[in-house]
Design goal:
The chain has helices at 3-28, 70-87. Helix content is 46%, strand content 0%. With 96 residues, it is mainly alpha-helical. The mean pLDDT is 76.
């Protein structure tokens, strides 16, 4: 046998071995699971209507996105300062 024919035979055998490995791994893979199906979203009409409250007419607390008045801000600062003293006492005071 010539050297060239030996190389061709070797390359063919390596290619056949590679194809056999690819086929074996493809067959060893589990089948793809079915995609998860979620229920369709409810239409907007089926949802309960949002509660409408007019906060300007004293219908409860105002929404969180509305700004505080200057007096409300001052009161909030006083409350935070007062409670902060209770939480962050000076070391040594009140502890035994």
């Amino acid at each position: 046998m010539k050297l060239e024919s030996r190389c061709v035979v070797f390359v063919k055998r390596v290619a056949a071995l590679a194809l056999a490995c690819l086929a074996a791994t493809a067959l060893a893979q589990p089948p793809h699971p079915e995609p998860r199906r979620f229920p369709p979203p409810r239409p907007a009409e089926a949802r309960p209507p949002a509660k409408q409250v007019d906060h300007r007419m004293g219908g409860g607390e105002r929404p969180h996105f509305q700004r505080l008045s200057p007096e409300e801000r001052r009161q909030l600062r006083r409350d935070i300062d007062e409670h902060g003293r209770e939480i962050y006492r000076e070391p040594g005071r009140g502890r035994r």
